[in-house]
Amino acid sequence: MSIKTIFIAAALSTGLVSCSRGISGVNSNDPYIAEQAQKAQTLKDQVDTQKRLVEAEKQKLKSLELQLEGAKQNLKGRKMTSS
Q1: Which residues of the chain have pLDDT under 70?
Q2: Apex CA 47: angle with CA 40 and CA 17, to 5°?
Q3: Angle subtended at Cα 60 by Cα 69 and Cα 10, rounded to the nearest 5 degrees
Q4: In the chain, which residue ranges form alpha helices assigned H by DSSP?
């Protein structure tokens, strides 16, 4: 995993912590409910973070594919002019 990906993950995780909580029961007086709600919230945060990372990686892949296509076209043009 690259440093950039780790940095993005940390930034996204930090952002998620500051977001309002989506799972009810975290502040329940019943310790079991509060614990299970916290586990569910943690997993939800991880899923959200992973989805954002996947989307970022898809964009990175798309950018690399465009760069590759440009490099191929450049190579093709160079070959044609040197022949």
Answers
A1: 1-21
A2: 70
A3: 165
A4: 3-18, 31-82
Token output for 72? 């191929």
Tokens (6 digits) for 75: 């190579």
Q: Is 12 in contact with 4 (CB distance < 8 Å)?
A: no
Q: Domain spans of the chain?
A: 3-82
Q: For tokens 């950018």, name the residue.
A: 63
Euclidean distance between CA atoms 42 and 13, whole angstroms: 10
Which residue has tokens 């991880």? 46
User: Measured between alpha carbons, how far is residue 19 from residues 5, 12, 69, 77 in Å?
Assistant: 21, 11, 39, 51
